[in-house]
Amino acid sequence: MADSDAQPDRSLLAQLARYGSHHGHPLNRAIHLLVDPLTVGLSFAVLDLLPVRVLGLGVGTLAYLGLAVHVSRLHVLGGALTCAWIGAASWAFASLAASAGGLRVCLGVGLCFFALQQLVGHQLVERRAPSYLVTHAGLSRLESLWESAATGSLYWPMQVLFALGFEARLAAQLRAAEARLREA
C-alpha cells in the first residue's frame, strides 16, 4: 500500500503531536493556553444565538456536546477538564452576548483572540501556519480542520495535567513526537 493510501494514526498521542508541533515557541504556547479555550467557548456561545434548534438545543450546544463526546473518548480526565474549561467560557460569553450590546463586545473579543493567536502567535512568533490550515497525511481537509479544533481544545488542558504530574509517560512521548514532526 502506498503512503498516500495509509490510514492516518488517530491515537491520542498522534493527534496531540500533530497539533502541538505547530505550537513550539513558549510565547505561542502561552497565548494558546489562555486563548484557545476562550475562543472555542465564545464560538459556541455565538453559534447558540442562531435561530436553529434541534430538540430545543442550539447549534453551539450541539457542537459543545459533539466536542465533549470526542475529547472524552480520547482521554477521560483531559476530556472532563476540557469540557469544564470550555463550558465555563461558553456560559460567560453567552451571558455577555445576551446583554445589551454584548454581542458586539463578544465579536470584538473574538477578533482580538483571532489576531492574537494567528497574527502574533503563528505568524510573528512561530513563523508557521496554524494546524487547521494544514491537511495532514491521510486526512481529508475537513478531517484535518475538525481534528485541529477538537484536539486543540484538548491539548491545553492536557498540558495542565502534565504540569500537575499526571500522565508523565504520555507527556514525554508527546514532547518527542512533536519534535520529530517539527523537524520533518
From TrEMBL:
The chain crosses the membrane at residues 42-67, 74-94. It comes from the Bacteria. Keywords: Membrane, Transmembrane, Transmembrane helix. The keyword Transmembrane helix applies. This is Uncharacterized protein. It comes from Plesiocystis pacifica SIR-1.
